[in-house]
Each structure stands twice: as structure tokens, then as C-alpha cells.
Amino acid sequence: MPGAVDAETYAAIQQLQQAYADVVTRGAWDDVPTLLTPDAHIRFVTSSGEVFEVDGAEAFGKFGANMTGFDFFQYIPLSFVVSSTSEGTLEGRTSSLEVAENEAGEWIESYSIYEDVYAQTDGRWRFARRSHRTVKRRVTPR
Fold it and tell me: Containing domain of residue 35, as a range?
């Protein structure tokens, strides 16, 4: 049964959320290993239903570095909840907004939900799993 987390743990997850937003917004893909466990599993389900799955922090950094086609991109975590599990990990849900402008000049807003699992590596909380699904996407032509 999920349990509450203490203020220190909640603050650590909040810092992790903000660091993830900073890394993906800046495209600082070499910093990904500081955010994910080495064996992390990341899953994206796009608004078209296409699924991308990536295993490992290093592979996710390479996956991100290969994303092209945007003149502007920003990831914004809107809210998150987190609770402890009986296995000693944490689980949670993150609502986010991604805004971008592609090379064609279209403005894109994507509202998403992440189902997250967090685990400690080297004494720090990191993402062990992120399962993303797009809730709503809006594209405004140039």
C-alpha cells in the first residue's frame, strides 16, 4: 500500500523533477546519467499512438541527442505526486507541458502524464522508470 514520504524525500524528488526539466530543455544529454538509474526504462506513447522504449540512462541520453527538428523546445513539469512503496522505492505521477516550435514554424503544445518509479543510486533518488503518454496535443500552423 502506498505511503506518504517525508519532506526531505519530497524535496529530493522535486529537485530531480526540476533537474530533468533543465537537462531536456537545454538538450544537455550528457547529464542524463545523473538523473536516471543505469538500468532505467523510459517509455513514450505519442499522440499518434507511436511507442518508443529506451533501456538505460546512456541509451536515453543518445535517444535525446538524436531528436531533431525543433528550433525551440521546453519541458515544464506542472505537478507531481509521490508515495513510498513496500519495496523501498517511490512511485508517482507527473503532469507536464512541452512547448516547441518545429523547423516549419509550427507551434506545438503537448500535455502529458508520466507514471514514474524512483530508486536510489549512490544515495540519490533517480528515475528508474518513466512511462509517458500524451493526453492532448495542439499544433498551431505558422
Answer: 7-140
Give the span between the Cα atoms of 80 and 113, in whole angstroms.
10
Domain count within the chain:
1
CATH number assigned to the domain comprising residue 71: 3.10.450.50
User: What residues does 109 pair with on adjacent strands?
Assistant: 99, 138
User: What is the reported pTM?
Assistant: 0.92
For residue 2, is it within any domain?
Answer: no
pLDDT band of residue 11 (cuts 50, 70, 90) is very high
∠ at Cα 30 (89, 21), nearest 5°? Answer: 60
36-40, 84-88, 113-117: the lowest-pLDDT one: 84-88
Q: Are strands 51-55 and 70-84 parallel, antiparallel or unpaired?
A: unpaired
